[in-house]
Amino acid sequence: MERILRARALVAGSAEGPAVVSRQPLSLWGGLCPRTGEIIDRRHELSGEIVTGRVFVFPQGKGSSTSSATLLESIKAGVAPAGIINLKVDPILALGSIVSDELYHRAVPIVILSEEEFFSIKQGDHVTIEGDGTVKVRTTS
Q1: What is the chain's Cα-based Rg?
Q2: CATH number for the domain running over 2-138
């Protein structure tokens, strides 16, 4: 079954992949290894998960403005998520993706969903983010 969700594109772009879903915010600085794509915050529910090539669904970033540099470095290293879906606007994450687009001509699309639609995405769902903010979710179970 495929559902179509209407998101607000914070950083436009297209991406697709399996969803890796967290209900907890995450600071990418100290929370994501920019060399491996692993979530390294040992207190986070997704500790040890790899976000590389997946659509990372989490409510919002938290903490350090250095999260933008961590996202930038993970994009440069080729280990960033394919796309990011948030519940709340995080200008720090957006900055990292926008700067990466300027420097490396590669950006991670970031979209914002309503609460109901955000919580409808489950771990492993196949997610496609389109340039206009449309999000297609194909349930895998």
Answers
A1: 13
A2: 3.50.30.10
For residue range 52-98, list pLDDT tens digits in order: 999 999 999 987 789 999 999 999 999 999 999 999 999 999 999 99
Residues 93 and 108: their CA atoms lie apart, in Å, by 10
* Helix/strand/coil for 126: strand
* Alpha-helical regions (H) of 27-90: 67-77
Q: Does pTM surpass 0.90?
A: yes
Counting beta carbons within 10 angstroms of the beta carbon of residue 31, is it exposed (0 to 12), middle (13 to 18) or buried (19 or more)?
buried
Condensed to tens digits (0 to 9), the pLDDT of residues 3-60 reads: 999 999 999 999 999 999 999 999 999 999 999 999 999 999 999 999 999 999 999 9
Sign of the torsion angle spanned by Cα atoms 103, 104, 105, 109: negative
Q: Report the catalytic residues.
A: 64
The torsion angle over the Cα atoms of residues 32, 106, 62 and 22, rounded to 10 degrees, is: -70
